[in-house]
Amino acid sequence: MSPGGGSFGGGSPGGQYGGGGQYGGGQYGGYRPPAPKRGGPVAIIIVVALIAMSLVGGLVFYGVRHYRERRQATEHEKEELRRQQEDVATRIVPDSDNDATRDYTDEDFKVRIRWQGEGSKVLHPSDASRVYPFAIGGLMRDSCHMAVVPDYSPGIDAEQAAVALAKATGTPGTASAPTAVRFGSFPAVRITLESAELGVPTVFEHIFVPRDGWLLRLSTWKAKAGLKPCEIKLEDAVELLDGEVRGRAIVPQRRVAPNRLFRVEERMFVSPAQRIRVTVPEGMGLVVQRDAAAIHPEAAVVVVAKGATIGIQSDPPLAVPASTYAAQDAALRAQAEGVPAPTGSFVTKKVGNRSIDLFAFASPGPYETISGMIAVDGRTITLRSIAAPSQRAEVADKIAAVLEGIEILSDGQAADLQKELPTEDPTRLVADDRSLRASGFRHHKLGLRMALPPDPIEGELYDSTGQTSFALALQRPQYGVQTHLIIGPVEADMLSAQKMVAANVIGVTPSDLEAEAKPALSTMSRASVPYLLSGMQARADVVTIRRPDSFVHVVTSGIESFVEAADADTKKLVEGMSFDERIAVETEMKNEGTGIAFFHHRFGFKMAFSDSSWTVEPRAFPVQLQAAGLYEARRPKGGSFIVMALNLPGVDEGFLRDYMEQALAGMVLQNKCVPERSDVHIGRLPARKLTCKKGPSMIIVGSGSMLYALLADMSGTDLSADDIVRGFSLLD
User: Fold this and answer.
1) Which of 95, 157, 228, 705 is the most buried (most CB within 10 A)?
2) Is 0.90 topped by the overall pTM?
């Protein structure tokens, strides 16, 4: 396994080899339209959100109705109405250059996606890949969706690929047996399955069509229940054309803002914390964050090329030669997957004065993993690919080409580049009872607050339940370690409980470990649990706080020297933990001067009002959603202000903001009112504003995986919508 330990980014907490995200779905891993890894049906979520906003008191239309009753529209307004109606009907987002009501033909893949009439929209590649990673096109109709995902896999059997996809992405027990069918004039394999991500049970249909070494995956999905019935028939929506499928590399077009950890620009990735700059050749692309973790859970960045994805990881130096560790790592990974270990490297690739031994072993299903490690200027670089076995030689060449574009930054270069990155992490994550943002992690049920460590992190809030709950995972690539916060039951034997929780993180049985008690840190119990990681001495340091009803464990694991190097920053993280009953208060109203303010501490926002007569009530969504909230404020003298908060990690924040803007504009245009659109700011954050004369004001703002929609209607009152919107702010 990789030097850092690898427990972060797998399909489930616990177990250093993850849970199938990097295996079973071809070179793109376990594809879960439209968001990878723990993605789920994000487009369905947006539909649910829009339905909710339209239902809450008819809110969008209060001011529109009043305005329409007063006078008829001018000719200029009628023309502008027609123009905007056409724009909303033909563009999936305002800045798209594609007509979503026209068929799309992809000559490289010999695929035509047909428009399905009013209410549907065709997604061209530049739009589709911002929503559905690695798709060449798609279709939306209400809460039904379709995408075409090609996978260059010469020699891979379509039935094996279907089974592997179901294993990687479906809820156990829901997949149908693969069935041989024909799609048009081509033989194909069909499978159906169910998944429940982000709280929305979803039904999927996948058809795999092998063509000229490619597997074309045609996928549809829709909410299982609770929304307006809809259907997309693949046979109607997709036509496969005659001729040779040439194909091309598919790179998601997500726009990723710089953060404390890295910056990515077209074909270049740079991370001062990991002291690495990666520049890839023409014809290849880069993916990061959840797009990367869905394929290679331990990678800092993933290179996407035709027929291969190559994960790159940069860790501190090892005490043994990188080639030795690489051989041990490949053997243990193969053993963990129940496949034969490689007997040695199959090739040594030389790039300038660098050489790397590459090892290959079978992955579950029909694919194989190729990996190698190399020591470069004080860093350990791991390169790992998943591809069809027939592509082994080509993948080795691609790995060599990627290695040529890797540069290790000096301490001075890293320091200078770090100054160019944001000083605060923009990440905002929300779970049912937890939140993570720049000011720290909060467990609202326990009343726990923990500051983030000084070193840059990538965080994840797991949706785990049971007696032992993985509440938080932090990947800390500067040191090559992971830190988990775990809530466990109270045990009579503290040391045994610490050994048990370390075993859960490492992915071994507790009987294989020995725990050693360490001097207490203030009132916190400490233990060290040594273990072997691909033949290297590794360690899990456990710090535990005893609470009345639970043990709160902080576990930092990885190569022993890595854990030791991170110790000072880990200590600051642990010492920053505190318990306060006020943190357990998720929402509250407070008097502020002559007015009042509503705080939502989990979603991280505030609504302030100039007079104290305002009341705030939660509103329900048509379908139960995880990490989503809808709140309406009203006052006796009239007026309405609604805030909707959605947490959708791993998706293109800008695309969703623009998609919601276009949908809201369509809702207003249905009432013959022409929205005026403008760029505004909510605090320091850019936002989009839609207004209708004398009508409601609508603002959409995104921040670090959070999307907030604000809708204010002050028609017939002594206040303007802008007066109310100014009272909204984000909490640190």
Assistant:
1) 705
2) no
